[in-house]
């Protein structure tokens, strides 16, 4: 007598951009998409109409948010973890995402691959106009968990930014863009990885409240540019206990871009 098939992990279907698109994702375990993904997606200009790679897409939140806000964008959700890859496919297939399906696809590929192996996995050189990423940015000592799915999404090996930005530099066309979100403490390795690859870096600090320190930075840079680094006005998330500022509400709900373009 064969053993019964295991029950599928508990999951949820969540609405984003006030119901403009939906996400299938694990419930009570792993990484659940939220503000970081929406803010990252908002770093892409509203008029973007090219091909975009969401590197380490997870269930697809940031990439689908770009497709939702930018009606002419074509988005590839790139993920390597088998379980999160399944969630990305399930997200794309949801009835509420039917309008996005023709402009999105899911790619099973490891962002850290290089050279011929990367190209063979579907990440060809100069194949994209933009790459976005929300890589793991917690040091191992800062994030202890027995949840291996959550650990793989949150904990950063020392070479993370170098490998991920190297891949972005390979797959983005000359003049194309890179956008990422990370902790402020990650700025040094990010800038080191950008050197010789991306320039004209613009940074928006993200603050919980106006009087509090930044908890995230969002950086957008251009491949091959020699332009220097600039610090933009911050994004302040809350004006009261749990009330979004007007700007944060628009950005997190797909009504505005982070950089005003």
Describe it for me?
With 261 residues, this protein is of the alpha/beta class. Helix content is 26%, strand content 26%. It is built from eight helices and eleven strands. Strand 8 (198-207) and strand 9 (216-223) form a beta hairpin. Helix 1 (35-41) packs across helix 2 (61-69) and helix 6 runs parallel beside helix 7 (187-194). The radius of gyration is 18 Å and the shape is globular.
Topology at a glance:
Layout (H helix, E strand, L loop, with lengths): L10 E6 L4 E6 L8 H7 L9 E5 L5 H9 L4 E6 L2 H12 L10 E5 L6 H6 L7 E6 L14 H7 L5 H12 E11 L4 H8 L3 E10 L8 E8 L6 E2 L3 E2 L9 H7 L9
Parallel strand pairs: 3-4, 3-6, 4-5, 6-7, 8-10, 8-11
Antiparallel strand pairs: 1-2, 7-9, 8-9
Helix pairs in contact: 1-2, 6-7
In short:
The chain is of the alpha/beta class.
Characteristic key phrases:
Rossmann fold, 26% helix, two-stranded antiparallel ribbon
The biggest sheet amounts to: 9 strands, mixed
Quaternary organisation of the protein chains: single chain
Q: Please give the alpha-carbon distance between the first and last residues.
A: 62 Å
Radius of gyration: 18 Å
Low-confidence stretches: 1-7
Overall outline: globular
- Quote the average pLDDT: 90
CATH fold-level label of the domain at 11-175 and 187-195: Rossmann fold
Q: Element order, helices and strands?
A: EEHEHEHEHEHHEHEEEEH
Count of beta strands: 11
Please give the count of helices: 8
CATH class of the domain at 11-175 and 187-195: Alpha Beta
- The SS-based structural class is alpha/beta
Helix content range of the residues, please? Answer: 25-40%
């Amino acid at each position: 007598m064969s053993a019964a098939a295991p029950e599928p992990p508990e999951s949820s279907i969540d609405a984003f951009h006030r119901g403009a698109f939906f996400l299938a994702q694990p419930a009570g375990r792993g990484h659940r998409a939220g503000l970081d993904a929406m803010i990252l997606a908002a770093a892409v200009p509203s008029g973007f109409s090219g091909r975009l790679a969401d590197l380490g897409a997870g269930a697809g939140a940031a990439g689908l948010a770009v497709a939702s806000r930018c009606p002419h964008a074509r988005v590839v959700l790139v993920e390597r973890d088998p379980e999160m890859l399944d969630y990305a496919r399930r997200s794309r297939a949801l009835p509420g995402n039917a309008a996005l399906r023709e402009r999105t696809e899911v790619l099973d590929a490891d962002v850290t691959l290089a050279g011929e192996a990367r190209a063979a996995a579907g990440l060809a050189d100069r194949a994209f106009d933009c790459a976005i990423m929300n890589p793991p940015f917690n040091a191992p000592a800062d994030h202890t968990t027995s949840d291996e799915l959550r650990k793989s999404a949150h904990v950063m090996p020392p070479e993370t930014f170098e490998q991920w930005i190297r891949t972005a530099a390979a797959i983005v066309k000359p003049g194309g863009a890179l956008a990422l979100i990370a902790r402020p403490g990650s700025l040094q390795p990010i800038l080191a990885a950008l050197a010789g690859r991306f320039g004209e870096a613009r940074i928006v600090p993200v603050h919980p409240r106006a009087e509090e320190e930044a908890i995230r930075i969002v950086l957008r840079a251009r491949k091959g540019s020699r332009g220097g680094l600039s610090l933009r006005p911050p994004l302040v998330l809350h004006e009261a206990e749990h009330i979004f500022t007007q700007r944060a509400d628009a950005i997190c709900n797909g009504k505005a871009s982070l950089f005003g373009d």
